[in-house]
Write a structure and sequence with these properties.
Blueprint lengths: L1 E3 L17 E7 L5 E4 L8 E7 L9 E7 L2 E8 L5 E7 L7 E5 L3 E8 L6 E7 L10 E3 L2 E2 L6 E3 L15 E5 L5 E3 L4 E7 L5 E2 L10 E5 L5 E5 L13 E2 L4 E4 L4 E2 L4 E10 L2 E4 L3 E3 L5 E2 L8
Parallel strand pairs: 11-25, 17-22
Antiparallel strand pairs: 1-8, 2-3, 2-4, 4-10, 5-6, 6-9, 7-8, 7-10, 12-15, 13-14, 14-23, 15-21, 16-18, 16-20, 18-19, 19-23, 23-24, 25-26
Length: 293
C-alpha cells in the first residue's frame, strides 16, 4: 500500500458524479507536472469530479475520522476484494488531492494529524496500474434459451458515453434471467440490496451489481441485477459460465436489462475495453446494437 501526493495521474471515478460533486481542472504546467485546480485555466484541461465522502457502506470504500491519543486519524475502510486506487481531498489540507493504493479488503490508515480533517471528497477505481487487456473474447454473460436483444451497444448515445462506459452493452431480458460469468475471476463486489430503479439522477449510484476481477487487471461489471439474487459473495472464485445472479432493473434503468462492461486502467485512467463474444454456435462476433444473441 502507498500514498502519493498530487503528481498522480487521475484514474477516474467508478460512478457518475452527483450534482453536489466538486469540479476540478486537471492539466500539465510548462514543466510537465500535473496541476489540479478549481479555477479554469486558459489552456485546455480535463474536468474531473470528487464526490462528498460516502456514508459507511458494505460494498464500496468509505472513510472514517477517529480520535486517538489526542490526535485525529483518517481511515479507509475497503470491502472490495481487488486492488484499489482511492483518492481524497480534505478541506483542512487545502486543494491537494491524494492517491492511496490498497491491495485488497481491510482497514487502512490514510493520515494522522492534530485537528479534524474537515469536509472530505473522495473517488476510487478498481485496478493497480497500467494493465494490458489480454483477452478480448468473452462468453455470453447470461444463461437463457431465448435469443436476447442488445438494446444499446458500444458508444450508445443514451448512456454509453465517457471512457468508463464507451464499450458497454445493454442486453434486454426478462426479470429473473440467469446472469453468467463471461470470464473466470474473483468476485470483487456483490451488491444486491436495492429494489428500485428509474431514469432519474437519484438512481445513478444505486444499481445492484457484481464486479468480477480478472487476472490481467481488468474487471467485468454486471449491473442492474435483481434484489437478493446474488449467488456469489466478495472473494469467491468464479468460472466462466457460472451463474452469479439474476437480471433486474435496479438503479439508473428504464427497464429490465443487463449492463455489461469490461474496465481497467491504462495510462493512468479508468477505461472500458472493446470485446467480442462467443455465440451459441461457438462462433466469435463483435456485438452491435439491435442484434439478437
Amino acid at each position: 500500500m502507498s500514498i502519493r501526493k498530487s503528481t498522480f495521474i487521475w484514474l477516474g471515478i467508478l460512478f457518475s458524479a452527483l450534482a453536489s460533486a466538486q469540479e476540478i481542472y486537471k492539466y500539465k504546467d510548462k514543466h510537465g507536472n500535473w496541476v489540479f485546480s478549481d479555477k479554469k485555466p486558459k489552456q485546455s484541461a480535463e474536468l474531473i469530479s470528487l464526490k462528498k465522502s460516502p456514508r459507511k457502506s458494505r460494498h464500496h470504500p468509505w472513510v472514517e475520522e477517529v480520535r486517538k491519543g489526542g490526535k485525529r486519524q483518517l481511515y479507509l475502510h475497503n470491502p472490495v476484494h481487488a486492488p484499489l486506487q482511492f483518492f481524497y481531498q480534505s478541506s483542512e489540507l487545502g486543494k491537494e488531492t491524494i492517491q492511496f493504493s490498497a491491495e485488497g479488503p481491510g482497514k487502512y490508515l490514510l493520515r494522522e494529524g492534530e485537528r479534524s480533517f474537515g469536509e472530505l471528497k473522495t473517488g476510487w477505481a478498481i485496478g493497480n496500474g497500467n494493465m494490458s487487456h489480454s483477452q478480448d473474447i468473452y462468453q455470453l454473460p447470461f444463461d437463457s434459451k431465448k435469443r436476447l436483444l442488445i438494446s444499446q451497444g458500444f458508444n450508445g448515445r443514451f448512456s454509453h458515453t465517457g471512457r468508463g462506459n464507451r464499450f458497454a452493452l445493454d442486453i434486454a431480458m426478462e426479470v429473473g434471467t440467469n446472469i453468467a460469468a463471461a470470464r473466470p475471476g474473483i468476485v470483487a463486489i456483490a451488491k444486491d440490496d436495492y429494489h428500485m430503479g428509474g431514469a432519474k439522477q437519484y438512481f445513478l449510484d444505486k444499481a445492484n451489481h457484481i464486479t468480477v476481477y480478472h487476472e490481467d487487471g481488468s474487471s467485468a461489471v454486471y449491473a442492474h441485477i435483481l434484489q437478493s439474487s446474488a449467488k456469489v459473495k466478495p472473494g469467491d472464485v468464479v468460472k466462466a459460465g457460472q451463474i452469479i445472479a439474476r437480471s433486474g432493473s435496479s438503479g439508473y434503468s428504464t427497464g429490465p436489462h443487463l449492463h455489461f462492461v469490461i474496465r481497467g486502467m491504462q495510462n493512468g485512467r479508468l477505461v472500458s475495453f472493446p470485446f467480442r463474444l462467443k455465440g451459441r454456435d461457438g462462433k466469435v462476433f463483435t456485438p452491435r446494437a439491435m442484434q439478437k444473441i
